[in-house]
Each structure stands twice: as structure tokens, then as C-alpha cells.
């Protein structure tokens, strides 16, 4: 755990940019899923650029205030993200291949933090025989906003737990 602040410092909004500067510096890139025109996520994206890190952005609806920042980043040259593979390809990471021995490839539910588990379970409840689920249905099922659900799904996709299909459809792997 790294911090510029003494132990016990309260999480106050004016400290977030300094914290995010460290996080962006330790990362290969920064992904912005949702951001208004005045957003801490945009501050973090600027830190990433200053640190020669990649900046990725997920496009959003043109009439949504929560998409103005991400769409602006795309206009300025951020890397378009529509699925986790877009990030993995850019940073030259590739998901593990499925040519493992059968005993290594047996299906098991992953052990996940609470937010990811809610999305994982939501996919299971909505999916009939692993049929894909639309992001809006998953957001309603889990109580997350579409942006929050997309953020969580991106993490699950990078970990190779879910797969995104065209049309904002997702399914468990």
C-alpha cells in the first residue's frame, strides 16, 4: 500500500487527485468508463498522459452528461475501448489460452470481491444456458448504473471470467 498521506488520513475529496496520480503512475494505462466534463477521472487521465501511460476511453451516448468526458478523450486521441481485448492488445497482454489439460480447465466459479460477485451472480440469474445478457438488463438486475456495471464487467473480462459479444451483450466464460 502506498500513500503520500500519514496513516489515518480521512478520505477527503481534495486528496483524491494526489492518490490517483500515484495509481496512474503504477499502472500501464488508465481506462475511463464514465466522466462528465469536470471529473476526477479526467484529472487521472491527464496524470496518465503526463506519465507517458496509455489512456483508454469507453464511448457513451452523445446526449449523456456522464459521457461528455469520455467522448472528449476519444476526440483528443484516447484509445477506443469496446471490449477488454482492445486494452489487452494495446498493452500486448493476451488472455490465457484454453489449451490447458482437462483437469486444469474444469469450470469453477471464481472467488470475487463483492461488487464483481454481484455482477457474476446477476449474469447467472439472467442467463438461460449461458445465453448472453444485455448490459441494461444486468444493470437493472444488480442495481448498478450501466457505467458501473461496464466498469466491473471490464475487470471480469480482463480476468477472463466474462466475454463481451457485439451489441453490449455479456456472458460468463
| Strand proportion | 5-15%
Structural class designation:
alpha/beta
Topology order in helix (H) and strand (E) letters = HEHEHEHHEHHEE
What's the domain count? 2
Radius of gyration: 17 Å
Mean pLDDT level: 86
Stretches where pLDDT is under 50 for at least 5 consecutive residues are: 100-106
Most strands sheet:
3 strands, parallel
- The number of distinct helices, counting runs of at least 4 residues, comes to 7
Number of strands: 6
Spatial separation of the terminal alpha carbons: 32 Å
The dominant shape is globular
Can you give the helix content as a percent range? 40-55%
Strand order of the largest sheet: 1-2-3
Summarize the structure in words.
The chain is an alpha/beta fold and 173 residues long. The protein has 2 domains: 70 residues; 63 residues, Arc Repressor Mutant, subunit A (Orthogonal Bundle), CATH 1.10.10.10. It is 41% helix and 12% strand. The chain is built from 7 helices and 6 strands; from the N terminus they run αβαβαβααβααββ. It has a 3-stranded parallel beta sheet, with helices on one face. A hairpin with a 3-residue loop joins strand 5 and strand 6. The protein is globular. 24% of the residues are buried.
Topology readout:
Layout: H1 16-26, E1 29-32, H2 40-50, E2 54-57, H3 68-75, E3 79-80, H4 84-90, H5 114-126, E4 133-134, H6 135-142, H7 146-158, E5 162-165, E6 169-172
Parallel strand pairs: 1-2, 2-3
Antiparallel strand pairs: 4-6, 5-6
